[in-house]
Amino acid sequence: MDHKILRTTRELIEEVGYQALTVDQVAARAGVGKAAIYRRYASKAEMAFAATAHGQWPPPLTDTGSLHGDLLALVRAFHVPMAAPPARHLVPALIGELAANPELDARFQDTFLAAEQTSFAEIIERAVARGELAGPVDPAIAHLLLLGPLATALYIHNRPVDEAMITDLAAAATAGITALADQRRSGHDGPR
Question: pLDDT tens digit string along 83-96?
Fold first, then answer.
């Protein structure tokens, strides 16, 4: 049933757009009751985000043996659903809804973003264990360093993101995370 709801949501977003999408339309086409949808998703926005930008989330983590390799694998995995046309139409609208709805924002933080930051925490822990990082770094900051620029390129600048940019984003995030770990180890938090 979950797969049917998400597939139907993607189809309808492509056909009618996010603004015109309704839970009633999804329920009717998927052949499920609205209650079944609302048991899974608190709102149209959450359902649409799960269907388009999040997919099977978080993506399985690959242990490549290096911080850079792990970040590169992760940004590649995030790029695929984030760059798809439905997500490129949905995410800007979702950002507006999150700003206007504190309850939806809290749920988004506690579900999708928490799962993403858990992935970053695991990558950082592995890098510390391998001796690549001088110490831990806040997973929320690592998340911003890698995925913030990807989201900006896709949703604000409307730039195509190719493999060269993905590689550059991973390299920049690796350098930033490494610098933060070194800074914290030396006792200098730097300017805020």
Answer: 888 778 788 888 88
H or E element, residue 174: helix 163-185
Q: How far, in Å, are 10, 11, 18, 30, 112 from residue 7 at the CA level?
A: 5, 6, 14, 9, 19
Going by C-alpha positions, the residue among 122, 151, 140 that lies closest to residue 180 is: 140
Q: Which of 182, 160, 12 is nearest to 82 (CA)?
A: 160
Q: How far is CA 62 from the centre of its chain?
A: 16
Reported as a single tens digit per residue, the pLDDT across 108-118 is: 888 888 888 99
CA distances from 41 to 48, 108, 111 (A): 9, 11, 11
pLDDT category at 191 given cuts 50, 70, 90 is low
User: CATH 1.10.357.10: does it fit domain 52-185?
Assistant: yes
pTM over 0.90: no
* Residues 104/44/120/180 CA torsion (nearest 10 deg): -50
Per-domain residue ranges of the chain: 52-185
Inter-axis angle of helices 67-83 and 163-185, nearest 10: 130
Could you tell me if 30 and 68 are in contact, meaning their C-beta atoms sit under 8 angstroms apart?
Answer: no
**Number of DSSP helices (H) and strands (E) in the chain, helices first:** 10, 0
